[in-house]
Amino acid sequence: MSDKLLSVPETCQVLGISRAALYKTIQAGDGPTVTKIGRRTLFRETSLERWMAEQEDRNSVLSPQAPAPTDISGLEAPSSEASQ
Q1: Residue 15: how many CA atoms within 13 Å on its side-chain side?
Q2: Is residue 11, in this structure, part of any structural domain at all?
């Protein structure tokens, strides 16, 4: 089983964020799981994919739903007298 390790620049490219944004996310405890090898900070591809899926799920739960369409069948049209 081969799980590719991504560098910080590669991870930033995949996520479409800056290095600073990635490190802020990690420092806040909200980022993908980090793998340290010596001084290198790496990310397992499978962990990154799982984290991205979790973010999508979390964002879909937190995003407001569109309001339900209003039933206008019982409303009357404005009378022509009101516009005169």
Answers
A1: 28
A2: yes
If you search the block for the tokens 């990154």, which residue do you land on? 48
Residue tagged 């879909």 (tokens): 60
Q: What is the pLDDT of residues 32-77, one digit of tens each?
A: 999 999 999 999 999 999 999 998 888 776 555 555 555 555 556 5
Report the length, in residues, of the chain. 84
73 assigned to some structural domain: no
Question: What is the domain-level CATH number for residue 33?
Answer: 1.10.238
Q: How far apart are CA 9 and CA 54, in angstroms?
A: 21
Among 60, 53, 57, 52, which Cα is nearest to 14's? 52
